[in-house]
Structure formats: structure tokens, C-alpha cells
Amino acid sequence: MKTKNRFLTITFCLFGCFLTTTAMSQSVTNSSFSYQGELTDNGSPANDDYDMIVSMLDGNSTVVGTPSTHLNVVVENGLFNLDVFFSFAAFDGFENYFFEVSVRKSSVGGAYTVLSPLQTMQAVPLATNLTNGSATTGQVLTFNGFQWAPSAAEPSPWTVNGSVLEYNNDVAVGTTTSSHRLTIKADTDNKALRLIGDSGSFGHGARLNFGDAERAYIDEDVDDHLTIHAFTGVSVTVSNTGNANLLAYIYGFSNSDGTIITGKSSTGFSVTQEATGRYRINISDTTINNNYIAIASLNSSSPKFTTVVVANDLFRIYVWDSNGNPSNHAFQFVVYRK
After folding, report:
1. Which residues pair with 171 in a beta bridge?
2. Cβ atoms within 10 A of the Cβ of 254, count?
3. Among candidates 44, 132, 42, 31, which has minimal Cα distance to 83?
4. 266, 235 Cβ separation under 8 angstroms
5. Which of 35, 37, 126, 211 minimizes the number of CB atoms within 10 Å of its CB?
6. How much of the chain, in percent, has pLDDT values that exceed 70?
7. Cα(150)–Cα(142) distance, rounded to whole angstroms?
């Protein structure tokens, strides 16, 4: 009998029956695949039962893995199909592999006839190595340049605690170094950080808090206007400028009749309404004059104006309406000592 592989077509089928993973049982997928070909016997399509052995060879013609043996394969009109399985370890991806097919007629037995030429293994059987990689729960597949292999997953430095994402080390954005818990380096447009609130069409209302309470913060209370809130005072320090440094001496929040709502002073102070739109800040220190600077602002969105005048060791705050007439209004103020 003269048996040859006149035309051998190899197709790799990686679907349902060959690569099956059941989610309920968490079964591991094997690396079997479908090998389809055409066999001729003395130049005519074979029609009989044949025994076949499919071996995988490396570039040195050395058998790799375990040959896949198939007995009594039904060949009709020259066509046959095999479910080939070598072993998972064979698919390492480091070199090219080839198929060697040997056949004999089942009814005759005896020696096998080796078909030629060898068939080059295509990409899909190699890809079966990616289906699970023998990975276990908690492992991931990593690529080493030739193949994917299971390895332990790198632990995340972040911890999810309810709705909070926690991290207990320094964070650097836009730079590789950080000297603080959070370092943000601006890009070429000097845009490093933006806070957007949920108020109005321009997104004002954002707040930057300090400390563990709502007592010290900066917020954009109205569009394009920042307000500094500090329960125990505000200090402005400019390094290496001698007596240009400013320290908050007293501060307060007064009603329109002069009664103090909140405030603090190391020496004591009071507010007196002297006339409509005119308030006097009385401070126990009698050496005010040029040693102090006062700033006042109004808690109002309507057009009103204020100014501060220092005279005879007293601070006077004047308030006017939009028409230039004196007007009573609540105000807040800070007195800085040089």
C-alpha cells in the first residue's frame, strides 16, 4: 500500500467543544485543538479506518511533549478530523514547532507511514497557552517576551475602605519626586490644581479646608471671590523681609448696630456705632497709629462700600450705599500688627 499526504490542510479550531471553561465549576481549560486534513491512498481520496499518530517536533526534529495517538479514525472521501492533545508544557512559545503525522490502515496494522512534508504549527494552538496558564486564584498572567506565565499579582498600594480610597504614602502628580503627602507639578500652562464647586453656572462654592474641623478654610463664596475663614486668626508671614511681616492682632464680626457676633483679641476690643454708617473699633493698646493695618469687608451682595481710617489711636470703619450715602451694615474686619 502506498500512502502519502497529497494535500494536508491543518485548521485549528478553538471553540466550544475544544476549549471549554465552566464558570460554575471553575474547570481548567486544556490545550487540545482540532486537526483537520485530507488523506489520499495511491492518489485517491482514502475511505477507510486509519490509525494516526501526531507528534510535535522542535527545530532539532526532537519530539516535544507526548505524541497524540488516534486509533480507528474514520476517513471519508479523504477527509478526517482529530482532537489533538500533546501536553500543556509543550506550548512554551520559545521556538517554532512542527507536526509530524504517521498513518496506517487499521485493518492492516503494522508499521506506520510518516507523511511529508512536516506542518508548521500556527498561532492558534500556541494561543491556547493563554487560556489559563495554570494560574490559580489571585494570580495574573505576565508576558516575558515569548510566552505568558502565571505569577502573583502585585499588591495595590491603595486600600478601598467603603467609599474612601486610602493610601498611606506620598503621592506625586506630574513629577517623580515628592517632599509632601501630595505634590502636583504644573504642566507648561502652569495648570496644577482646580477646585470647582456646585453652585451657579460658573461652579463657585469650592472650599479648601485645613485641620479636622470646619474652622479654617478658603472658599469661593461667590463667583471669582475668595474668602478666608479662620476661627482663631489669620497670620501673614513673608520670610526675610524684616518688619514687613504681618500678624493678625484682632479680628471680629460685627452687626450693623455694633454688637460683636464673634471676635478675638489678645488685649480686648469693642465696637461702637458712632453714627449711621460709622463704627469705631476700640482697642486697649494705645500705641496703634502706624504700627497696625486694618482691613474690613461687608457681608452683602448688594452694592455697598467700606473704608478704614486710623486716627487718634482708633480705627474707624465707614460704610456707604451705592449712592454714596452712609449706611448701616454688618461687617467683618482684621487688624494686623506690623
Report:
1. 182
2. 24
3. 31
4. no
5. 211
6. 69
7. 6
218-264 residue pLDDT tens: 888 778 777 777 776 666 555 555 555 566 677 788 888 878 777 66
Q: Does the structure show a pLDDT above 50 at 1?
A: no
DSSP 211-258: SSSTTEEEEEEETTEEEEEESS--EE--TT-GGG-EEEEEEEEE-TTS
pLDDT tens, 135-186?
778 788 777 666 677 788 888 888 889 988 898 889 898 888 888 888 888 8
- pTM tops 0.70, yes or no: no
The DSSP bridge pattern shows strands 225-230 and 113-114 to be unpaired
At 312 the three-state DSSP class reads coil
| Three-state DSSP class for residue 186 | coil
User: What are 326's three cell numbers?
Assistant: 452712609
Grid coordinates representing 290 are: 502706624
Helix (H, G, I), strand (E, B) or coil at 139: strand
Q: Which three cell numbers stand for residue 323?
A: 449712592
On whether the CB atoms of residues 13 and 127 are closer than 8 A, the answer is no
Widest pairwise Cα distance in the chain: 128
Q: Which residues have a Cβ under 8 Å from the Cβ of 215 and sit 6 or more positions away?
A: 229, 230, 231, 232
Per-residue pLDDT tens digits for 92-132: 555 678 889 999 999 999 999 998 888 887 655 555 555 55
- In CATH, 3-131 is 2.60.40: yes
Q: What share of the chain is helix, strand, coil (3-state, %, to 5)?
A: 5, 45, 50
Residue with cell 516575558: 144
| 3-state SS, one letter per residue, for 82-124 | EEECCCHHHCCCCCCCEEEEEEEECCCCCCCEECCCCEECCHH
- In the block, cell 454708617 appears at 277
Distance CA 263, CA 269 (A): 9
